[in-house]
Specification:
The protein is α/β, with parallel strands linked by helices. The strands form 4 sheets. Strands 1-10-12-11 form a 4-stranded mixed sheet. Strands 2-3-4 form a 3-stranded parallel sheet, with helices on one face. It has a 3-stranded antiparallel sheet with strand order 5-6-7. The radius of gyration is 22 Å and the shape is globular. The two termini are about 25 Å apart. The protein contains 13 helices and 12 strands.
Length: about 375
């Protein structure tokens, strides 16, 4: 398998996809692209190593349950009852991910890309949480009493032989390279601490870093690579917004390649999802069925976000719905294999022109008439 598209792990917050469908864009986009390439459903990836998760678990009503189960219950509640994703789920603390992360850390330590060194970091006196620089209350307990504490940490510095983010890290055609992102991703400290104080995460005690876990911005990369390894993919393409990529790129610079698998980012934009009323006249004009509406929301709009990386505005949706319907109404009885091959090649090299090409889109639709089979995972 050459490419496998996987969502950038979604933070496991207190929401469902029914109430905040924008959270599902990356998942739906990955599912649609994998289906066009003829690949089996990939797992949905979840980021559970968050301070908000620590607080949510601590403050939960009723008897305290193990954190892993607490996170699993939250994830299960995101989906309609009895409808887990076809490809399953994977979190950033699952055994496969933790083992892979520690494996990569050890390799990077031997190569000198990472070090374990004694660092002095601002720490809360009350709870021991690393507070970061600046005078502000501890995010974990609210105390304002901090101190500089010295201890062992996992540390990295920018690679000297390459930028934090270069063209090979982005899954995009030559004309769509995000030069601004490549510049801003490098605007971080030269020296980064990759160990964190959390109640939940990939335990770094096997490295002698007791009481510390791996920074979740690194763990996200390990999650994607672990899913790719399970599916025997050569290239794992993470669907992610530009802002998210900017936030995690520096921390993932030594964790984007392992055991013959390469990780790349493919950028997508945000989508408006309060649009049903504004499109109602068009729905009526085209006599759109619920299946057509769902196909537009859950299949076409995520694909469109791959092209509209800066985001899609509400006032653009009528024109996009008309384009979607024109393609829908001109689907051939049998798809043109040469056109499909061209679309698949375009996807493999990061091209997006086919999304706004009515003929190309119609042929893709003809191979996936059961749109629900593409988007049943969400």
């Amino acid at each position: 398998m050459r490419h496998l598209f996987l969502n950038g792990p979604v933070q496991n917050g207190p929401f469902t996809f029914d109430t905040r469908p924008g959270k599902a864009v990356g998942i739906r986009l990955a599912a649609a692209l994998n289906a066009i390439l003829g690949l089996p459903p990939a797992p949905h990836l979840w980021n559970t190593v968050t301070l908000a998760g620590d607080l949510r678990h601590r403050q939960a009503e009723g008897p305290m349950i193990p954190r892993q189960r607490f996170e699993a219950d939250l994830i299960a509640a995101k989906y309609p009852s009895g409808q887990p994703p076809v490809g399953g789920t994977l979190t950033d603390t699952d055994v496969e991910v933790a083992n892979l992360a520690l494996e990569m850390i050890e390799i990077n330590l031997r190569a000198g890309a990472l070090t374990i060194s004694r660092e002095t970091v601002p720490t809360c006196r009350a709870c021991g949480h690393m507070t970061g620089t600046g005078s502000h209350p501890c995010n974990a307990c609210g105390s304002t009493d901090t101190q500089d504490r010295t201890g062992l940490h996992l540390v990295t510095e920018h690679a000297k032989d390459r930028p934090v983010l270069d063209r090979s890290d982005i899954h995009a055609s030559h004309r769509q390279q995000p030069k601004h992102l490549q510049h801003t991703a490098a605007n971080v400290a030269q020296r980064l601490i990759l160990s964190r104080t959390r109640h939940h995460g990939i335990d770094l005690s096997p490295l002698g870093l007791n009481g510390l876990v791996l920074d979740p911005r690194v763990g996200i990369h390990a999650t994607v690579l672990a899913a790719a390894r399970l599916h025997k993919a050569d290239t794992a393409v993470m669907t992610v917004t530009e802002n998210a990529a900017n936030h995690i790129a520096a921390h993932g610079q030594h964790f984007r390649q392992h055991d013959g698998i390469r990780l790349q980012y493919t950028l997508h934009g945000h989508l408006p999802y309060d649009h049903a009323a504004s499109l109602q006249p068009l729905y009526e004009a085209y006599r759109a069925t619920q299946e057509i509406k769902d196909g537009f929301d859950e299949w076409f709009l995520p694909l469109l976000s791959l092209r509209a990386k800066t985001g899609t505005r509400l006032d653009q949706l009528p024109a996009f719905f008309k384009h979607y319907m024109r393609a829908h109404l001109t689907q051939p009885a049998e798809a043109d294999e040469s056109l499909l091959d061209a679309v698949r090649h375009s996807i493999s090299v990061g091209g997006t022109e086919w999304i706004t090409d009515k003929q190309a889109l119609a042929n893709v639709m003809a191979t996936h008439r059961r749109v629900s089979a593409v988007t049943a995972e969400i």
